[in-house]
Amino acid sequence: MSDADGNPYVTGPTPRNEATLRRMYEDDGMTIAEIADELGYNDSTVRGWFDDFGIELRSSGRRSREVSE
């Protein structure tokens, strides 16, 4: 079995999915630390996924769209 990227070492579903990460970060307003905690990975792993998918980080001090509006 492999993941969607063809990694043969992954034996089950993986959260390394652009749509999931974008929903959690952009729509739900979660921080990278919150996403990492929710998915059971460390911050640097999630940050690496953001880099892989080209997900633009919010400017510091702005947690979500709701807070800034």
Description:
The chain is an all-alpha fold. It has one domain (18-68). Helix content is 48%, strand content 0%. The protein is built from 4 helices and no strands. It has helices at residues 18-27, 32-39, 43-53, 65-68. Helix 2 (32-39) crosses helix 3. The chain is globular and about 25 Å long. The termini are far apart.
- The residue fraction in helices comes out at 40-55%
The strand count comes to 0
Low-confidence segments = none
Could you tell me the mean pLDDT? 77
Element-level helix/strand string? HHHH
Total of DSSP H or I helical runs spanning 4+ residues: 4
Topology:
Elements (H helix, E strand, L loop, with lengths): L17 H10 L4 H8 L3 H11 L11 H4 L1
Helix pairs in contact: 2-3
